[in-house]
Amino acid sequence: MQFPGRRKKLIGSSQNDLYDHCLQFYGQPPLENISLTEFETFAVERLKLLKTVENLGVSCVKNSEQYTKKLDAEISKFFFNKEDGISEYEKRRKDHISHFILRLAYCQTEDLRRWFIQQEMDLFRYRFNDLHSKHKTDFLHKNNLKYETVSAEEKKSLQDKLIASSYGLSGTKVEEHDVYKVPFQDALDLVRTRKVYLLAGNAYIPHHEIVTIVLNDFRTRLSKALAMTARSLPAVQSDERLQPLLSHLSHAYVGQDYSIQKNIGKISLEQIDALSGKSFPLCMRHLHKALRENHHLRHGGRMQYGLFLKGIGLSLEQALQFWRSEFVKGKVDADKFDKAYAYSVRHMFGKEGKRTDYTPYSCMKVILSNPPSQGDYHGCPFRHSDPELLKQKLQNYKVSPSGTNQILELVKGMHYQLACQKYFELTHNVEDAGFSLNHPNQYFTESQKLLSGGRDIKKEVDMSQRSQENPASVTRPSQANSKQAHEEMGDLDSFFQDE
Amino acid sequence: MMPTSDYDPACLPDLLPLYYRRLFPFSQYYRWLSYGGVSKNYFQNREFSFTLKDDIYVRYQSFTTQNELEKEMQKMVPYKIDIGAVYSHRPSQHNAVKSGTFQALEKELVFDIDMTDYDDVRRCCSAADICSKCWTLMTIAIRILDRALREDFGFHHLLWVYSGRRGVHCWVCDDAARKLSVAARSAVAEYLSLIKGGEETVRKVVLSDPIHPFINHSLSVVERYFCQYAIVEQDILGSKESVDKVLALLPEDILSFPVVLSQYHIKKGGQYFDKEIMLQYCYPRLDVNVSKGVNHLLKSPFSIHPKTGRISVPIDLKELNTFDPFEVPTISLICEELERPRADEAEDDDVKDKENEQEAGERHYKRTSLAKYVKVFDRFLEAMARSRKGEMLQKSDLQKDF
Fold this sequence. Notes:
The complex is a heterodimer. By secondary structure, chain A is mainly alpha-helical. Chain A is built from 24 helices and 4 strands. Chain A is globular, with a radius of gyration of 26 Å. Chain B contains 14 helices and 8 strands. Classes of the chains: A mainly alpha, B alpha+beta. The interface of A and B includes residues 164, 188, 192, 199 and 201 of A. Chain B: It is an enzyme of class 2 (transferase).
C-alpha cells in the first residue's frame, strides 16, 4: 500500500522531467489521457485568455502598467484552480494541453492560424519578459538556443560599441541588463539592417531584443506545426465527441465577423438616415454624414462604410442604388459611376475579381490599419479625431457634458472601443451596454435589439443580477473581473450562443 | 617589369590546350574543392560550367576524380570555367534524379566587386577599363571587406582572386560559410552594403547617429587612402563638373552651417556629410545577387579571361599595396615562359625540374610567372588543412578518442 505522500513525490520527479520550465515552445504534444470535461475546460479557458490578450493589445499600450496588470490578472485566473495549491506541475500541464487543443481548432484557415499565432506570440512575449533573467537563460539553454550571456567584463570593454550598434541602449542599460551572444545566423534580421554589434561571428543582443529573436523562432515553429496539424485534422474531426467543441471554438472567433449576411433586404434605403442617428456607431454616422454632405467618399471611406452597410443587410442592388444616387448628386455622372464606382461596390460583394466576399471591418481593423489623412472620413473617431473636434461632435449629437468628459477620459487612456461603448450607453440611455464592443456591426445589432425592446430588456435585467455571468463570455471577454470558473462550466452550451 | 607577350585572343585555341596540359594547377585545385575529404562526395557533387569555343555554354558538369577533371578539361578546352554549388546528387546526372530532389546544398560565400559599378565616381576610366589610378578602389574594397568578414563575421579562410579584367572576387571557404542559407547570405551582403540607390539617386550614402562600429572601421580604411586617391589620383576637385558632383552631395544650407548651430543640423545628419562623401566615392559596391544564391556560378580561380588573356590569380593580401593588375601574367606569357626557362631560375632548379618533368605535369607552372600565385594558393590551402586538423583534434578530445 502506498501512502499518498510518498506517491506524490514519485510523480513529482517524473513531472519535473516533463515540464522543466514554466514556459515552453510547445514542441511535443501531450501524450496522456484526459477527460472530456477537462478537454473542454482547458480549451475554453485558454481561449478566454487569448481573447483577453487580443483586446488588451488593442486597448492598451503593450507593456504599460495597465496592460501588465490586466494581463497578469487574466493569467492568474487561467492558472487558478478550485482546489487549493494548484501545483506548478498542474499549471504547466494545463498550459501545455490547452495550447494543443486550440491548435486543433485554429489550424484550419489562414485567418484562424494568423490570429492564433499572433495571440500566442503576444502571450509568450509577455510571459518571457516577465521571467527572471536567470530563468530566461535557462529557457534558452533548455530549448537548444545557444545564447550565452556576456560576462560583465566583456560588456564593459565593449560598452561603447554596443551602444553605437543597438537601438535603445545606454551605458546604464548595458551595465544593468544582460547582453546575449548569439551566432549571427540566428539574428539575421538584426544583421541585415546592421542594428547589432558583431564580433567573431556572434551578434551581441541586448536583453530587450533577445525576445524578438526567440519570438521569431516561436513563430516559425508554430506556423509549421499548425500546417502539419491541419493535415491530420480530418482524423480528429471525425471523432464525434470532439467535433462540436472544436467547431464551436473556432466559430467563436469567426462567427463574429458578420461575413454571413443576415436580414438581407430588411433595411430599406429610406431608413438609413434615421438609422445613422439611432443605431450607427460614431464612425459610420460620421461617414454617412460626410457622404450626404459631399456626395462623395474616398476609397477608405467607401470600403469601411460600404462593408458595414453590407453587414447590416443591404443587398447588392440596394447598395448600388444608394451609392449611385449619392454620387450622382455630386460631380460624378451616372455613366462614370457605372464605369468606375459600381465595379468597386460589386467587388465588395464578391461579384468581381477574385470573388472574395469581403468582411466588414472590425473595430480593431478600423483602429489599427489605414489611418485617415486629409480629406478622408474613415477610421475610428475616438482614435483618429482630434479630441477638441470629437468633443464638438459629441455635443452636436446631444451627448451630455459629463458623458462627453467620460468619453474623453477613456480616449485619453486609449480605450477607443470602451469610449464607443460609452457613446452607445449615453445615446441609448442605458447604464450598461451589456456587451463588449469590438465590431461596428455588433454595435448596430445590439442597438437594434435594444430599441426593438422585448427580450433584450430582460437580458439587461439578467445582466445586473448575475455579475458578469454573460452567456457569450467566451466570444466577448467581459469588462469586469472576478468569475468563478466552475460556475461558468455549468452550462457549456451557453458559452457558444450566437447573438 | 616583366616583358609581357602581346596577347591575342585569336591564339586562345592554341594556348588553352597547352595551359590545361602543363600549367593549370590541378592538384591544388582538386585539393581545394575536396576540403579534406571530410564530406563524402563533396567534389563529385560540385557543379562546374564551361564556356566552349563559339560561346557554347554547358552546365552541370561534374567529375568523380582529379584525373577525370584533368582529362575532361583537356578534351573540352573551356574558354571560361565557372564554379557552382555542391548538390545533393552528381550534377552530370541531374536529369536522372526525381524532380524536386536535386538541390543545391552548399557553396562558398562569394563576393564580386566590379569596377563598372563605380562609374559614377570614377573620372579616369569607365566601363570595362581600369587603370592604376582607379585600382585603388579595389584595394580599399578588399581591405574593408576582408576585415569585416574576419573580425565581424568570424570567417578565417578567404581567397581573394583577381577576376582577370576589372574586378576582384572573394571566396569565403569556411565550413560555416559554405553551409549558409540564402537568407543568411543576403543578410551578410546587406550588412556590408552602404551604397544605396542607382541612377536616380544623387546622395547614395546616408549616415545617422549613432554610427555603427562597422562603418567606423570602414571609414578609417577609406580615410587612409582618400587624399591620395580622390584628390590626387581622381582629382575630384580638378574640374567644375566634378566639383559640382561633390557639391551635389552637400546639404543645401551648407553656407549657413557655421552660423546656425541649432539641433536642426544634427537632426538632419548634416555633420556627417564629409564622411558620406568619402564613402560615396570609395566604399565598395556589392552585387547582392551574386552573394545571395547558393547555386550562383562564379568564375573559377585560375581560369583565363578571354578578352584580356589574364589568369584569375589569387591575391596575396600581404602584398596588396603593390598588387598591379597589369602585371598579372597572361596566358601567352606563361606559355612562352614554358618554352624558355626564366632568367632568374637557379641552374640546380633547372636540372631538378627537367628530371621531374616526366613525372608531375603540375610542376611546369613553376617555370613561369604563375608560380608565385600558386604559392599564394598553396598557403591558403595549408591554412585550411591546419584548421581542419585542429577541429578534428578538438572533436576527438571531446569524444575522448585516442
